């Protein structure tokens, strides 16, 4: 790999997040993968989903081959200033709907789901009984 070309900030790298201009941060190094977008086996969506963050875990989780790692050299453009990379985001659970203690509407729906078919069947039997010819 060539000598480190330059040190880039996270804000600078995160602006390159489009199909025609895509940079990734992998292992504290910045890669311009724009020319590789069409050739990536996982498609360009995979690369785009890794922009705007440290993509090291995404890259390592896939288990890329040695050939893929060697290919990265031609896309290398510099190092990331690690002090500008934000801390890893923690998972925030989505807000849960309020708990419905009485469950009245759900109870009524369940009863109706049971009673309506029985009423229809009973009505059909009554109609058949009265319309039956002797």
Automatic annotation (TrEMBL):
Domain Cytochrome b5 heme-binding: 5-81
Pfam families documented for this protein: Cyt-b5
GO cellular component, one term: membrane
Alphabetized InterPro entries for the sequence: Cyt_B5-like_heme/steroid-bd (IPR001199), Cyt_B5-like_heme/steroid_sf (IPR036400), Cyt_B5_heme-BS (IPR018506), Cytochrome_b5 (IPR050668)
UniProt keyword terms in alphabetical order: Heme, Iron, Membrane, Metal-binding, Transmembrane, Transmembrane helix
Domain of life of the source: Eukaryota
A GO molecular function held by the record: heme binding
Transmembrane segments: 107-127
Keyword Iron-sulfur recorded: no
Subcellular compartments: Membrane
Sequence similarity: Belongs to the cytochrome b5 family.
Name this polypeptide is given: Cytochrome b5 heme-binding domain-containing protein
Source taxonomy: Eukaryota, Viridiplantae, Streptophyta, Embryophyta, Tracheophyta
